[in-house]
Amino acid sequence: MNWQAVFFDFDGVIIDSVDVKTQAFATMFRSYGPDVERAVVNYHLSNGGVSRFEKFEYYYKHILKKPISQQIMDELGREFNQLAYDGVLAAPFMDGALDALNQLKQEKVPAFVVSGTPQEELQHIVAQKNIGEYFLEVHGSPRKKDDIVKDLSNRYAINLEDCLFIGDATTDYIAAKNCAAKFLGIVKKTGKSPFPNGTPISPIITFD
User: Fold this and answer.
1) What is the pLDDT of residues 39-66, one digit of tens each?
2) Cβ–Cβ contacts within 10 Å for residue 99, how many?
3) Which residues is 185 bridged to in the sheet?
4) Termini Cα distance of the chain
5) Quick one: average pLDDT of 107-129?
6) H or E stretch including 165?
7) How sure is the predictor about 1, in pLDDT bands with cuts at 50, 70 and 90?
């Protein structure tokens, strides 16, 4: 294996938790009616990897046409956490994820998590799932993914052109391109690829 480092998104890459978070968003905005709920879910699914707080801001500004204060944002964050946290902890690992992490560990290739999940929550989940040993560092929002990757590159003297970013959303693809890293898209067998034609994709994480 010739990668200097591998960067992983989390939901939909390490943990099969995308549906859990989809249901959480749907539940939170269901009282506004089916059209709003549908718009919320569609935006969420089309913008994987984006911080939930950025999504809340979009929902209020563009769908509900209402202002959103920091207090409302904090309340939404707490509600989302209550709805989704246990479901994420109970969610299974994505096919191939643990095999890939074990392979990286055996080959002594540094692995990092670069996620849109809030930092503190992400660290708790990684600890509860007992996978902290596989990652050199774990990073979440509010920092942008490409900023995180570039910072890690500088601190560990990593040449990003020799690194791989694995993600399931266009935000992951864009972050990889902004950093000049190679990219592998994870797309479920029953799903449609959100990535440009020619992008390497797989239903499982594999380095073969």
Assistant:
1) 999 999 888 878 899 999 999 999 999 9
2) 14
3) 167, 201
4) 9
5) 95
6) strand 163-167
7) low
The 8-class DSSP code of residue 60 comes to I
Residue 114: which H helix or E strand, with range? strand 111-118
Report how far residue 11's alpha carbon sits from residue 48's, in angstroms, rounded to the nearest whole number.
9
Q: For residue 47, what is the DSSP state?
A: T
Q: Round the average pLDDT of the chain to a whole number and report it.
A: 94
Is pTM beyond 0.90? Reply is: no
User: How would you list the strands of the sheet with 137-141, edge to edge?
Assistant: 137-141, 111-118, 5-8, 163-167, 182-186, 201-202
Tokens (6 digits) for 13: 């890459």
Sign of CA dihedral 43, 41, 166, 109: positive
**What pLDDT is recorded for position 46?**
86
Q: Reduced to 3 states, what is the DSSP secondary structure of residue 109?
A: coil
Q: State the amino acid at position 62 in one-letter form.
A: H
Joined tokens for residue 104: 């990286």
CA distance 192 to 173: 15
Residue with tokens 């995308």: 18
